[in-house]
Amino acid sequence: MPVLVSHPDEVRILSRRFGQGAAEIDKYVELDGYKAVQNAIANGPEWVITEMKASGLRGRGGAGFPTGLKWSFVPKVSEKPKYVLVNGDESEPGTCKDHVIFLHDPHAVIEGTMIAGLAIGAKMGFIYLRGEYRYLLKIVEKAVADAYAKGYLGKNIFGHEGVDFDIVTQTGAGAYEVGEESALMESLEGKRGVPRIKPPFPAIVGLYGGPTVINNAETIASAPPILLMGGEAYAKVGSERNGGTRLFGISGHVNKPGVYELPMGYSLRKAIYEVAGGIKGGRALKAVVPGGSSCPVLLPDEIDVGLDFDQMGKAGTMLGSGGIVVLDETVSIVEFAMRTMKFYQHESCGWCIPCREGTDWLLKTLTRFYDGGGNKKDINNIQYLAENMMGRTFCPLGDAAAMPTLGFIKKFRHEFEEYLEGKRTEKQFITVQDLVGAGH
Amino acid sequence: MSAIANSIFSPETAARFDHLVTIYPVRRSALVPMLLYAQDDIGYVSDAVVAEIAQRLDLLELDVRSVLSYYSMLRTKPAGKYNVQVCTNISCMLVGGYDLLDHCKAKLGIGHKGVTADGLFSLEEVECIGACCWAPAIQVNYDFHENMTNIKMDAILEDYAAGRGKDVK
């Protein structure tokens, strides 16, 4: 079972029920559960969208699109049914935040799905979990069944005549690409998870051709607390244009890895050195991958930056999925870049040629380079390949593979050059036991 | 009584499939979960599984195979009774994921996607399984084991070999 962590700087809005048994519906209700959705029914869709817009909540999957605005794009009248689709296909390396939400607070996801449905006029929602999360799917399935049993889901919810909402849970079967919203819809329609061309955007033509709101599980789970505390109050917790808090998963070479809920705009340096307890074994920091493996790397002198979408963008990287991966001085960037590319090469769905071929040639080149068969031209070639993938694919997977690669070449070119000269990062032999501590 | 005569699936799985095809706006939406649940039941996605799922969803076998080949958890050959999946993606790699994978290879005497002679274990190097903050992490079938060490690995393998391991499908 994943270990829960805590730090005094945390602001517990999304995680306030973690560790309190709120996967059980009675406990969830006791802790203010299913109040927000009843407020939403009482006050109507306009109120919900106004509060969501005021909250400054931006998509927690990584793109950071304002959630209230996204909901407002859905046409009021539609011939085809509208849907809410919750993206729990969490697969970005370094990211395990939805994992803890499904484990500790599945009803928050259900309630958020209902709120989104009420806001856009949908009567059906889907919660899609990655195939590897079977034990979490069972928790969510039970939560959904319990909500039906209480009359919170189904026909005439909470006794309101004519207010219906159904939720279907869905399992994936192993595919990073399915985390991309249009590929997610394809998968849910029983097809290969390849992306659709946009426009039309899902808000107009989505699942089964109907208008669809697709949100990350963390985004959806943020809706109930926003309606309870009020959009403005939520916005105030975060930084400018970045409302509220988010779950940051800090992993790699830190003393206290874990999922922490911090206000948007919180210092990256403090997150690493105070919240996560600093670098293991007192070693020096070499680099930080700040928001999942797709985000360009930051150097030790670049971490005095606030963790929000805008500040991270200004720093030349992204807030991404909030998965902060910390690398100490023992890491070989050549090896790390190769391993990162191995992932994207494996996960490229093959639909767009720049991504399919680009990731393959990048992996081949990086592997040959790492194995000692590299030459000086390779470094520019890697950069050239990556640059030519950027912006040339249907979905962002091509960019996601290219961006970190460009970051490694730009910021660690000297290390690639020294690698050719036979100089290797001093790889100290560290066993698993050294890192996770004795007694395991 | 299943909607399909002579179903190859267990009565529980067949009943589940009978229900599953009714819950979506479009029947085909059941395909990806059906393939995975069929694999849980039969052990892998055999030709017979493809045929029955195609029949249940009124699809061509070709459609089913096209989807089957896309998803990395689906397999067309049997794996071990306990499929040991070791994550070596970045967060796990940084804290000894490869060390752990090498340990498993030596211990089980098999490589990536190999199966032990007795059919008890198979081994797989997998991409990120979403347990980065508790790295290195593995899954045995669907069950997660976090903060892994070689010592812990040995104990877990022994538990599964003795039939004491957790295995929830």
Write structural notes for this entry.
- The complex is a heterodimer of chains A (440) and B (169).
- Chain A has 440 residues and is α/β, with parallel strands linked by helices.
- In chain A, 44% of the residues lie in helices and 11% in strands.
- In chain A, a hairpin with a 5-residue loop joins strand 5 and strand 6 (258-263).
- In chain A, helix 9 (217-229) packs across helix 10 (231-237).
- The longest helix of chain A has 24 residues, at 397-420.
- The two termini of chain A are 15 Å apart.
- Chain B has two domains: 11-68; 82-161, Glutaredoxin (3-Layer(aba) Sandwich).
- Helix content of chain B is 41%, strand content 11%.
- Chain B contains seven helices and four strands, in the order H-H-H-H-E-H-H-E-E-E-H.
- The two termini of chain B are 23 Å apart.
- The interface between A and B is large, with 65 and 53 residues.
Entry keywords:
heterodimer, A: 440 residues, alpha/beta, Rossmann fold, Ubiquitin-like (UB roll), de novo design (two linked rop proteins), 3 domains, four-stranded parallel beta sheet, globular, B: 169 residues, alpha+beta, Glutaredoxin, 2 domains, four-stranded mixed beta sheet, 7 helices, 4 strands
Sheet bearing the most strands of chain B, described? 4 strands, mixed
What structural class do helix, strand and pairing data of chain A support?
alpha/beta
The general outline of chain A is globular
CATH topology of the largest domain in chain A: Rossmann fold
The string of secondary-structure elements of chain A, in order, is HHHHEHHEHEHEHHEEHEHEHHHHH
Helix content of chain B: 40-55%
CATH superfamily of the largest domain in chain A: NADH-ubiquinone oxidoreductase 51kDa subunit
Strand and helix order of chain B: HHHHEHHEEEH
Name the assembly state: heterodimer
**From the helix content, strand content and strand pairing of chain B, which structural class follows?**
alpha+beta
What's the CATH topology label of the largest domain in chain B? Glutaredoxin
User: How far is it from the N-terminal to the C-terminal residue of chain A, by CA?
Assistant: 15 Å
Integer count of domains of chain B: 2
- Could you give the count of β-strands of chain A? 8
